[in-house]
Amino acid sequence: MPNRVEKLSLLSEMIAFAKSDDRLKMVEYTFLLSVAQQLDVSREDFDYLINHPVNRRPLKSHSERIVQFHRMVLLMHVDQERTKSELAKLYNYGLRMGLSHDSITRVLYLMEGFPDMMVPAEVLIDIFKVQYN
Questions:
Q1: Which of 32, 36, 105, 112 has the fewest CB atoms inside 10 Å of its own CB, making it the most exposed?
Q2: Residues spanned by the domain of 86
Q3: How many CA within 13 A on the CB side of residue 107?
């Protein structure tokens, strides 16, 4: 489980991703707030992060990086809009976290075949397991 600094970093990165179109939509805010609650980050701390991002702290655990990538995939689809720019940012985010190029490409390709383009967590985990072994 990530420590407090890592949790704030994760949320900060997700907020920056959501704001990549220069605004944070209410549906994105609600989704991110639910992630903050799952991470045991207070609403006050979460709201502070919206305008005061913290520095990036890489996750040590491979499984935590996969979970965070899945959160980012879900975030990308929560507003029902997907742009090539968002796809490129998500792809680069996965690479920066040290995830496999092949796994990221496969996730982005397979999401086209799922309802609402949301890859189920178990499918995503299986994709990364194959590449990790």
A1: 112
A2: 59-132
A3: 33
